[in-house]
């Protein structure tokens, strides 16, 4: 899961997916998140995102921001990005067509082919964080269903 700073959207998506995986039969799946920027390396998530997650029974408080690295292409089969800017930044690091094939917009799992972005709630209010939670939760459910169908 990749967003800009790795303090709002991507750590939340990481933990939502991790929780859904624990409730499924998919035990061999690894999940992580990163940001395309170096702004928040080593920082905890935004307090508003942490509070919103907690309201939904999700704990992201221990997460520490990290930056996306080229070797993430080696570690993961799927790299979900939150918006077109993240997509461009991650694709610029791709070393091959195989790397590029791993990258996709997260909301395409929920709304295939629409290329919609998960809005960045950082500069908004509480309602933005709630909308982001809803979108990420629904998209992660789609990922679980897809993985279950493929396994």
Summarize the structure in words:
The protein has 151 residues and is mainly α. It has a single domain, classed as Rossmann fold, CATH 3.40.50. The chain has helices spanning 9-22, 47-55, 72-75, 84-93, 97-101, 107-110, 126-150; strands at residues 2-3, 34-35, 79-81, 103-105. Strand 1, helix 1 and strand 2 (34-35) form a beta-alpha-beta unit. The model has no long low-confidence stretch (mean pLDDT 96).
Taking Cα atoms only, what radius of gyration do you get, to the nearest Å? 14 Å
Number of domains: 1
Here the CATH topology equals Rossmann fold
What proportion strand?
5-15%
CATH architecture: 3-Layer(aba) Sandwich
Distance between the termini: 21 Å
How many E strands? 4
What is the CATH homology-level superfamily? Response regulator
What is the share of helical residues?
Answer: 40-55%
Query: How can the largest sheet be summarized?
Result: 2 strands, parallel
Principal-axis shape equals: globular
Chain-averaged pLDDT? 96
Instruction: List low-pLDDT spans.
Output: none
What is the string of helix and strand elements?
A: EHEHHEHHEHH
Structural class, by secondary structure, is mainly alpha
How are the strands of the biggest sheet laid out side by side?
Answer: 1-2
Helical element count? 7
CATH class: Alpha Beta
């Amino acid at each position: 899961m990749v967003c800009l700073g790795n303090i709002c959207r991507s750590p939340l998506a990481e933990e939502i997916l991790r929780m859904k995986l624990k409730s499924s039969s998919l035990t061999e799946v690894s999940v992580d998140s990163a940001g395309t920027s170096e702004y928040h390396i080593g920082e905890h998530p935004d307090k508003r995102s942490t509070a919103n997650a907690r309201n939904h029974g999700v704990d992201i408080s221990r997460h520490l921001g990290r930056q996306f690295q080229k070797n993430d292409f080696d570690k993961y089969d799927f790299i979900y990005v939150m918006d077109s800017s993240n997509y461009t930044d991650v694709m610029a690091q791709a070393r091959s067509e195989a790397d590029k094939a791993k990258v996709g917009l997260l909301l395409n799992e929920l709304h295939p082919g629409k290329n919609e972005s998960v809005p960045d709630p950082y500069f908004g209010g509480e309602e933005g964080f709630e909308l982001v939670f809803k979108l990420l939760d629904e998209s992660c459910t789609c990922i679980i269903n897809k993985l279950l169908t493929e396994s």
